Each structure stands twice: as C-alpha cells, then as structure tokens.
Amino acid sequence: MQHEQEPTGERSATNRRSMEMVVALLLLLLGSVVVFDSLRLGASWADDGPQAGYFPFYIGVILCATSLYTLAGALRMRSDVSFVSTRALRLVLTVLIPTVVYVAAIQWLGLYVSSSLFIAAFMWRLGRYRIPLVAAVSLGVSGALFAMFEIWFTLPLPKGPIEAALGFG
Amino acid sequence: MDEINALMQGFTIALSPFNLMLMFIGVLLGVIIGVLPGLGGANGVAILLPLTFTMPPTSAIILLSCIYWGALFGGAITSILFNIPGEPWSVATTFDGYPMARAGKAGQALAAAFTSSFVGALVAVVMITFLSPLVAGFALRFGPAEFFSVYLLTFCAFVGMARGSAVKTIASMMLGFALASVGLDTVTGQLRLTFGQTELLKGFDFLIAVIGLFGIGEILQTLEEGLEFKGSRAKLNLRTVLDTWKELPRYWLTSLRSSAVGCFMGVVPGGATPASFMSYGIAKRFSPRAARFGKGEMEGVVAPETAAHAAGTSALLPMLTLGVPGSPTAAVLLGGLLIWGLQPGPLLFTEQKDFVWGLIASIYLGNVVGLVLVLSAVPLFAAILRIPFAIIAPVILVICAIGAYTVHSSMFDVWLMLIFGVVGYVFKKLDYPFAPLVLALVLGDRAEDSFRQSMLLSQGDLRIFFANPLVGSITAFALILLLWPLLAGLRERFVGPAGAA
Predict the structure, then answer these.
(1) Is the ipTM beyond the 0.95 threshold?
(2) Which listed residue, of A18, B5, B26, B173, carries a Cα 20 to 30 Å from B277's Cα?
(3) Across chain B, what does the average pLDDT equal?
C-alpha cells in the first residue's frame, strides 16, 4: 500500500496530463489488488449473506473502472498544462524533505528532541529568526508538549537517549 | 411539573462553588484535548477518570462531562483555523469553516461554530430533561438492520454533494471504502488486504488519513503560494461575535433540522461523527444557498456543529436510562458510573435523583460556561493565524505527528500520515475531492458490518430493511434523499420549473 503514492516529489515540474495518468494508473493498480485479494477470500453471496470479499470485490471493480475512465480522459488532454512549477515544487520540497527527516529522527532521538531541532531548523532556515527566539520557541514548544503528554496526561510519546539520560526513559 | 422541580433541585447541587470550579477546569481541559488531534474526548475522559475516584460521584461526573463539552467545542478550532479536524466530528466543519478563515472571516466562523454547538447541546439537554423515558424505549429497538439504515441515510444525505467530476468523486469514495476494508474482518475473522503485514492488521484509522490529507496536504498546498497563511487579516475583537449573532437567526431552519438529526443520532447511538456529516449533507441539499457550500458559507458551519453537539449531548441519555452508551465517550463515562458504585438504568432516575439531576443541570451550566469561555477566546484563537508561517508551520507539523502517533502508539502511523499528506496534495491539485474518501473511511466498515449482521439475522433476505415501520421509514427516507435530484428533475419536467423552489 505504501508505494502507490510516492511519485509526486520525485519529478521536477511535471505536466498535469502525466500526473493525471500516473494517479489513475496507481488507482487502477490498487483496484486490481483489491479485486484479486477479494477473489482469494471469496466474493460471492453465501446462504447467510455476502462473503468477506463481496463488498471489496465490487469496490475494486468500480475503482478500476473509474481509473480507466480518468486515464482515457487524460490521454486526450493537452500536455502543456503545468501540474506544478519548478519554483513551487522547490518550496514544497523545502518543507516536505525536512519533515521526512524529522519523522525518521523521532525513532532515534525521541519525539521531544527531534521536534525541538525541527522547529529550530525551520525557523532558522526559512524565517531567519535570531537565535534567542529560535531557542525559546523550539525548547518552549517541546517543554510544553512534554509537560502535557508525559506528566499531565501520562501518555508516553517516543523518547530517545537524552530523555533516558535525564531519567525519563 | 416534576421535571422542573427536579431540575431546580439539580441546579442547587451543581451550583456549589466547588462544582462550578470543576466545570471551569473541565471545559478548559476539554478544549485543549479537542484542539490536539489524536487526543479525543473519550481518550481525555479515560485518562482523567482515575483522578475522580475520590470525589463525590456528582462532582466527578460534572468534571468528566465538562471535559466532553469542552472537547466538542474545541474540535472546531483547528478545523477552522488550519483545516485540521481536532476531532472526528469536526471534519465536516472544515468544509466551510476553513474557506471562511481563508477569506479573513475566522472570527465569524469560530463564533458561528461555538454558538451552534451551544444551540445543539441546549436542544438535546431539553430533550433529555423532558423526554428521557420515552426516548430511552426507542433506543432499545435498534438492531443491526436499523444501524445499517442509519448509515445508509448518512451516505445518501451526502452523495452528490462534492463539487467537481463525478467520476473522481466515485473514485475517491471507493478508495475510502477500500482503505476501510483493510484488516481483520469482524464477521468472519478473515484478514483482508493485509498481505502478511502485521501493521495493516488494525486497518487504517481514519484520524491518520484526516490528519495527513487535510493537515499536511494543506500545508504543502499553502507552500506553493508562498510562505504564509492566508486569512491573517482576521478581525480580532469581540464585536465579531455580536455581528455573527445578528446573522445566525437567518439559519434557524438549518439549526432546527440539525438539532433534530443530532438528537436522533445521539440517542440511537449513531454518534456525533455521522450526525455532523448527515446534517451537512441535508443542509446542503435543502438550502437556498447550496451553491455557496464549500466556499465559505456560514450555514455550512452551523449545520455540522449543531448536529455534532446535539448528538454528543443526547448520547448521554441512553447511557443513563438504559446503560447503553451512545458514543465512545459515553461508554467511558459509563465505566466511571460503575466504578463510583452507581447502576445505570431506569432505576437510576428514582434511586439516585441527586446524581441524575445534578448531572442534567450541569449540562446546562457546563455549556454556558463553555460558550462564555470559548467565545471570549475567539480573538485569541484568531490571533494564532497572525503567527508567522516559519514558526506556526513546524509546530503544526509536530502536532500532526503527535496526533498520528497517539492513535495507536505506532510510528508506522506517522509515516502513513506523511504519505496521506502527499496524496492529499496531489489529489487536491487533480481535483479529487476528500470528503467522500473520509466519509467512506469513517463509516464504510461499520456500515458493512451492520449490513452483514442483518443478513445473518435474516438469512440473506434483503426485506429485513423494510421489516418494521422504524427501519422501513429510515431506509425509505434514505432512498428518497438519494433519488432527490432525480425526483426534483421529474417534477420540473411535469409540473414546470415554477413549482420548484
């Protein structure tokens, strides 16, 4: 399920027609996966009502049909309509890539430390704020979240080596 | 009247300084819980339940129910400001609330949402006060077939409301259904679409999808237009509230209809989330301003908020009278009742008068306290939009990540949220609507389960959906709503356009 939606960030400034086709093809693929898995489970109407794959089977079929329709429409589209400009794409990626790094960092550093670093990097790179403000906001937000989740609601969020060193592991 | 006397007695109990303080704390906590995605009302109440074991039961339920009212109010805040629903029942509020905020009318949208919530709660609590025994009997008659017909009604009320291409609307809805079917099939115990991946066993929680599609997707979309949030010109004074109040009486019919939908859905336990979707769909279908829905129409904020709060409030009724909780939060409260040594059911009203009427009085008071609290904070909430993008954007992303994580305490969900974010961005650019996807993801599973349970009961006979007047009329109403555009077209053809409104 995870691979079907990746292609956006990859291409620089692509046109709308090809994006429309890529998405339709991915939905078609997904629809066929649903259809095949439903057939495996049994997709007919038993004595006591529908089998486990009955509804998903038709959902998959309809998804395939709509994707084919969209695909056919996309083939007749003009290819000079832009989906996203290089400039806009660059702006999107300046946020998307750090966010991916941030989510990856949560596993290693814990949520509080990586959130502080993420907010600080964001304010520093994009906002060009002074260091005292950057430090205050990034540490303040993490501190407030820590107080709220760990102490107040006693709902543990991922923690890393630094929290462990402070005795909160 | 007995009820009035009992209610007055209840007010004297609820109005003690200690209880008033608990109300205030409860509403405040609830608003915070409502604002944070992933921390739901049920969640918040469950976490704080242990704190109340030493309190007198009346004070305890006042505190916990006020957290719930606060969460109902708070869910709207992030929906309107950032297009991120803090609670499932405020998804429908984003459809018009966020466009209003982008047009610089965040204050009006918030004031309308809070006031409508209050109206919904008020109607529901009046119903609880006077109709408890009557309504309680009605809720007992709900079986799988009735549930399915209610879900069908929600879908039918909603179908066709999305703008844009019909094919893409269907594709989006089917994607929602497909995602909803992933995981353990509760009827047969078979695994569907998991392909041996243990992470997929629990399926896709719709909150993850919503946080990704709406929250992350929106931030990516906003980025294209430069590094700032629109709508920062929002007016920041309390006059906005008064001006909005002058406008609200115009939507009395929508309010009334949405309250009725909400009360019905709360009592039958359909829940606040389907209530808000259904109410939005019906309001759109019958409103003279239908064309402006989705573009920042205040009526589109009034309808779902009124219904959600009415449903949330009336969900307490079956819990008190029957011991059948009408919502997840009511289920947690029910657990509390049992721990405090109270046995819910018809006898509760005669044996624990002080508790029941103290609670009912606290619903009135708690909502007044809540309304005053959140309305006076409207300028504060609207001011959040003035925080520069480079500060607020990473904070929102962090809160989204926390929200996704807390649903199942799983990092996999955080990655999933990011993927949904990218999907949201692409879908939005290609004009695939989100609303059908979210609706199908929320209700698809429950609708299918109730359908198949009904089929097990009737041995595959579809006539079970018309087997008694109750289920028959709901099903019929659903089909009428579905075919409404067709019927309206026919009427126009034979009677002439003059007759059509």
Answers:
(1) no
(2) B26
(3) 82
